[in-house]
Structure formats: C-alpha cells, structure tokens
C-alpha cells in the first residue's frame, strides 16, 4: 500500500511574486507594450492569464486581451478518458492573425496539453509568434515542447503529482507535490 504525502512547494505569497515576475518577463520579451494576447488553457491557465493581465496592467498601464482555450477535443488521449469529458467554451473574441500570442498554463509536464493547445489555436488563425508561459515546469517531456517563461522549475519523479490550487477554483493559492511512500524511499 502506498502512503501519500502532500508537500507544499509554493504558498500564496510566493505564487503572487512568481506571477509578477512572469508578467515582467512577458513585457521584456515584447518590444511594443500591448502588442500581444494572453490565451489561458482551461481551467487554471485561464485564471493565471487573468492574473497576468492584471499584473501587466499594474506594471505598464496597458490592457492585455485575454482568450480562453478549451483543448478537450484536441487531446490525443480523449478516447481513453473515463466518463464524459467536460467541455468548456473557447472564447477568443479577437483576430489572432499576425499577433503575438502567449499561451498560459499552470503545469508543463509531457507537452501533450500544449500540443493540443497549439492545434486548437491554429483553428482561429495564424499568429505571428506563439510563446508559452507556465507557473510550474515539472519535466518528463514526451514531445519537443518547452516553455519560454517558467515561474518555477520543479523536478519531479514520474509517479508524483503536482497540484496547483488557485483561489478562484480551489479557495486558496498553493502548489503541492503528492509523493507516495515508495517515491520517498
């Protein structure tokens, strides 16, 4: 029997600092302030994109458009998912052709979610450039995908789980690793 242990990696204060740093990095990578669009991947990527937009507003006094992307039907593992997938509404209410897009997600793991997001985004147009900003990069890539901006690199074992909790969804901000007893030995 595997005993599970939750280890706190980030608290709300540290997460706030990381979001502010990611916002600064996004601004540094774009020559013209406001010449980019944030697109969050449901669920937690959407809330992180909204937080980044608020931070950028505070830093540069510019409103950044935010899109919300559902990748459910672009996943390569949809046939193997138990039950019925929960489909959310993609909301990209602007033209993305020849725009710089920053895809935002909470955890980068195998790269398959980001591949699905790229496929979904291309159905809306052809951006000039696409960047990826993630709160956590935990490694274990199965596809040649990397983040342009990483809040925290968090090396993990394959059997561990990274849980990102955001106040908007979970009631509080924190990042946890679920370790099993066998991973700790």
Biggest sheet character:
5 strands, parallel
Average predicted local confidence, pLDDT: 91
Helical region count? 5
Q: Give Rg in angstroms.
A: 17 Å
- Helices and strands, in N-to-C order? EHEHEEHEEEHEH
Instruction: Identify low-pLDDT runs.
Output: none
The number of distinct β-strands equals: 8
**Strand adjacency order, main sheet:** 3-2-4-5-6
CATH architecture: 3-Layer(aba) Sandwich
What is the SS-derived class? alpha/beta
Distance between the termini: 14 Å
CATH fold-level topology: Rossmann fold
CATH class: Alpha Beta
Shape: globular
Q: What is the percentage of strand-forming residues? A: 25-35%
Tell me roughly what share of residues is in helical segments. Answer: 25-40%
Q: How many separate domains?
A: 1
Written overview of the protein:
This protein has one domain: Rossmann fold. Helix 1 packs across helix 2 (44-60). The strands form 2 sheets. A 5-stranded parallel beta sheet has the order 3-2-4-5-6. With 185 residues, the protein is of the alpha/beta class. It is built from 5 helices and 8 strands; from the N terminus they run E-H-E-H-E-E-H-E-E-E-H-E-H.
Keywords:
Rossmann fold; 185 residues; alpha/beta; three-stranded antiparallel β-sheet
Task: Break the fold down into its secondary structure elements and pairings.
Layout: E1 4-10, H1 12-28, E2 36-41, H2 44-60, E3 66-69, E4 100-108, H3 112-122, E5 129-137, E6 149-153, E7 161-165, H4 167-170, E8 174-180, H5 181-184
Parallel strand pairs: 2-3, 2-4, 4-5, 5-6
Antiparallel strand pairs: 1-8, 7-8
Helix pairs in contact: 1-2
């Amino acid at each position: 029997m595997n005993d599970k242990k939750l280890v706190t990696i980030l608290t709300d204060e540290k997460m706030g600092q990381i979001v502010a740093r990611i916002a600064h990095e996004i601004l540094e990578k774009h020559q013209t302030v406001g010449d980019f669009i944030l697109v969050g991947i449901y669920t937690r990527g959407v809330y992180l994109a909204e937080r980044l937009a608020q931070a950028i507003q505070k830093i540069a006094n510019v409103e950044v458009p935010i899109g919300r992307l559902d990748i459910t039907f672009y996943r390569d593992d949809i046939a193997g998912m138990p039950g019925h997938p929960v489909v959310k509404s993609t909301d990209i209410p602007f033209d993305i052709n020849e725009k710089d897009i920053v895809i935002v997600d909470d955890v980068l793991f195998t790269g398959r979610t980001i591949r699905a997001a790229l496929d979904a985004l291309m159905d809306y147009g052809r951006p000039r450039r696409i960047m990826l900003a993630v709160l956590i990069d935990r490694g274990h890539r199965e596809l040649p995908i990397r983040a342009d901006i990483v809040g925290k690199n968090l090396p993990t074992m394959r059997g561990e789980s990274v849980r990102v909790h955001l106040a908007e969804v979970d009631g509080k901000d924190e990042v946890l690793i679920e370790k099993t007893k066998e991973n700790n030995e």
